[in-house]
Design goal:
Elements lengths: L1 E3 L5 E3 L3 H5 L6 E4 L5 E4 L7 E4 L2 H22 L22 H14 L3 H13 L6 H20 L1
Antiparallel strand pairs: 1-2, 3-4, 4-5
Helix pairs in contact: 3-5, 4-5
Length: about 150
């Protein structure tokens, strides 16, 4: 069977195992009522929750498999995982003009790179393995807050 891929080029439909072995980015959110919510944005409606990170990750892996199997059996298109090509590398961060001015002045005064500290914290978080995401996120927040504290002193 021939199908159109994401670049609108004619291609052969792959076997189910091909799709099941694709690595999709997972987004984890703390649930305000406790536990966690996980979502695979590339697969519309593929989300789950759990009381612990391990349970949530196990649940999202099961939800991913069920989503792909159902779409495959129905003959629906299965989106490929998003790639870095999807992103420009540009991050816009909104803040008040006065806060931006104060941070920039402090950064010059301290010869510190606020943007570098922020980038390092986000990079540190993004490179963490799935099972360490919560700890890495906390560390990244602490690094970012430490950088802000250093700039405010």
């Amino acid at each position: 069977m021939k199908t159109l891929n994401q670049k609108n080029k004619l291609s052969e439909k792959q076997p189910l195992d091909y799709y099941l072995n694709l690595q999709y980015p997972v987004t984890l959110y703390p649930d305000p009522e406790g536990g966690y919510v996980a979502q695979i944005k590339d697969l519309p409606g593929c989300l789950t929750q759990g009381e612990t990170l391990d349970e949530t990750i196990a649940n999202i892996n099961e939800a991913r498999e069920l989503w792909i199997e159902t779409a495959y059996e129905a003959g629906d298109e299965i989106p490929l995982p998003s790639t870095d090509d999807t992103y420009s590398g540009k991050l816009l961060l909104r803040m008040s003009k006065s806060l931006h001015r104060r941070l920039a002045e402090k950064a010059k005064t301290l010869e510190a790179a606020f943007y570098k500290a922020f980038f390092d914290a986000v990079t540190h978080w993004a490179k963490a393995e799935e099972s360490l995401i919560a700890n890495a996120f906390q560390e990244a927040c602490q690094l970012g807050l430490s950088a802000i504290d250093a700039l405010q002193d």
